[in-house]
Design brief:
Number of helices: 17
Shape: elongated
Strand content: 15-25%
CATH class of the largest domain: Alpha Beta
CATH superfamily of the largest domain: GAF domain
Largest sheet: 6 strands, antiparallel
Low-confidence stretches: none
Distance between the termini: 140 Å
Structural class: alpha+beta
Length: 552
């Protein structure tokens, strides 16, 4: 025999799913609740959600009949601990029937104005061991029976499926919106592509499936001219201009191993930094940044480096040419002429280079941190070191050539020694020490000249110990003289070069013009003293500066 109730159930479920497509959740709950009340022949009903911690009931919906006869005021949330037996289904996690509500257990009374209850059926919707919602019906004319529970369980399960599906769809929609927002607003260009291989599995082309707004902005290529087109069509001549990108993209699309590289994209005449990865075999996604300005800055830096090197080379050559052409007497005159020329022809360009370095460092501040930025910083440091080296050569040359007029005053040797050791860039593999006798600490001298003498001797000692060693400065009194020694543990000075050690333009080093020790000798003599040295092969060298007491 045909059961009309089955038709009603089927019709309700179809209508429930149809309404689930368009109705807001509040109205969907109301539709479900009205059906539950009607199916069980009740007069009142409620549907409430339960918090995830199971501690609070979120008051959600009542049927119209219940609201019509109820004047009680409710908060939004209701603590489970304060709820009466209408929430027993939540506590017991099963359907609960109270056909004689007045005699039912666990009563906590009803709020003032609440509709009276004669009998009640409450039902939990459970998922993963937690109660997600409870609903109940009440005041049926006849007793509630198990069949009423079955009727409600059927529609409750379907409603729970709909709620889960709606939650998933909402989360997917939100995730999709976030993805599209990120995709559209990211600063780097993005392209998602499918790789095309020939019969021999070699990459021959690829198709743009999607690009973002930054792709258009950074490349100047319009979406309508790129998406769903082969790159060979969108950018004619790319295979001949940049064949390497086909190999890289094809390798990533086949192996799944991500790669990063820099590329001068010839069709657009721009430099790109590209990160490419494989979301699935045969496809790749490329994220790229236009680094053309950074590359131009690096090129400027390299040009300045070359310029500094040319200045330095042109100066080790000028001195050598003069030295070869002139006799000993004429060499001294040439040194004076060269010193004057250096002050104008070399220091002026060096000042310009120093200014350029400052501007490049300012430009560098806008570049993001990374290996490339660190490389540029190292190059700038190298240039500045070269400029300082050239300046020292110029200073030695001018100090040797210009007249010296010491400004004698009380000088403290311990302070000078500390500046020449602790504050000077001495390699970590060299252990430096300073010993100044108390009676030798103060003397009358030109502190600037004496500091220059000690600095040159310390630099000479450091250069004599490339593998490391010990450097010791000592000062003591010998009769009325002040004696300062600078000792190193280097290889010693070869016997054949010792007679010419203080001669200007003579050097045994690969770098330098041979003025350092000549300046030491000239300044020491200007202070009224003498400088000598003692050296032994493989045991080191000691320079000895002897300064007499000042003449009153």
């Amino acid at each position: 025999m045909h059961d009309p109730d089955l038709d009603d159930k089927a019709s309700f479920l179809l209508e429930l799913y149809r309404k689930a497509l368009n109705l807001p959740e509040k109205e969907l709950y109301q539709y479900f609740l009205n059906h539950a009340v009607k199916t069980t022949r009740s007069t009142i009903g409620f549907f409430h959600l339960v918090s995830d911690d199971q501690e609070s009931i979120i008051l959600t919906s009542w049927n119209q009949e219940a609201l019509k006869n109820c004047t009680a005021n409710y908060a939004t949330h209701y603590p489970v601990g304060q709820a009466g037996n209408w929430a027993d289904c939540l506590r017991l996690k099963r359907p609960v029937i109270y056909n004689n509500f007045a005699e039912s257990p666990n009563q906590k009374g009803l709020p003032e104005g609440h509709v009276s209850i004669k009998r009640m059926l409450s039902f939990p919707i459970i998922e993963d061991g937690k109660v997600k919602a409870i609903f109940g019906v009440g005041n049926k004319t006849q007793l509630y029976v198990k069949d009423d529970v079955v009727q409600l369980e059927l529609v409750a399960n379907e409603l729970n499926k709909i709620l889960k599906q709606r939650k998933i769809e909402t989360e997917l929609r939100n995730a999709k919106e976030k993805y599209h927002s990120l995709f559209a607003n990211m600063l780097d260009g993005f392209a998602y592509c499918e790789m095309i291989f020939d019969k021999e599995d070699k990459p021959i082309d690829f198709v743009y499936l999607e690009i973002n707004d930054a792709f258009e902005r950074l490349t100047g290529l319009r979406r309508e001219n790129v998406v769903d087109r082969k790159v060979s069509e969108a950018i004619p001549g790319i295979r001949e201009a940049n064949p390497e990108i086909f190999d890289i993209y094809g390798r990533v699309a086949k192996t799944g191993n991500p790669e990063r590289f820099e590329l001068f994209f010839k069709p657009l005449s721009i430099w790109l930094y590209i990160s490419v990865y494989c979301p699935s075999r045969g496809y790749f996604a490329a994220v790229f940044e236009n680094i053309t300005e950074r590359k131009l800055l690096q090129q400027r830096l390299e040009e300045k480096t070359s310029e500094v090197e040319e200045y330095a080379t042109g100066m080790e050559q000028l001195a050598e040419e003069r030295a070869l052409k002139l006799k000993d007497a004429e060499r001294m005159a040439a040194i004076g002429q060269t010193a004057g020329m250096v002050g104008h022809d070399i220091r002026n360009p060096l000042q310009a280079i120093t200014s350029d370095i400052f501007l490049v460092r300012s430009d560098l501040s806008v570049i993001p941190e990374g290996e490339e930025k660190e490389g540029i910083k190292e190059s700038l440091d190298s240039i500045e070191s070269s400029v300082e080296y050239i300046n020292k050569i110029v200073q030695d040359l001018q100090d040797y050539a210009k007249p010296l007029k010491p400004a004698m005053q009380e000088t403290h040797l311990d302070e000078l020694c500390e500046e020449c050791t602790l504050k000077k860039d001495i390699p970590e593999n060299i252990k430096a020490s300073c010993e100044v006798a108390e009676d030798a600490n103060k003397l009358a001298a030109d502190p600037a000249m004496l500091k220059r003498v000690l600095s040159n001797l310390v630099s000479n000692a450091v250069q004599a110990m490339p593998q490391g060693g010990k450097l010791c400065i000592r000062a003591y009194r010998d009769a009325n003289d002040t004696v300062i020694t600078v000792h190193d543990t280097g290889m010693g000075i070869p016997e054949e070069v010792r007679p010419r050690l203080f001669t200007p333009l003579f050097t045994t080093k690969s770098k330098g013009q041979g003025f350092g020790l000549a300046v030491v000798k000239r300044m020491t003599e200007a202070l009224g003293g003498t400088v000598t040295f003692e050296s032994q092969d493989n045991e080191g060298t000691t320079f000895i500066v002897r300064l007499p007491p000042s003449k009153k």
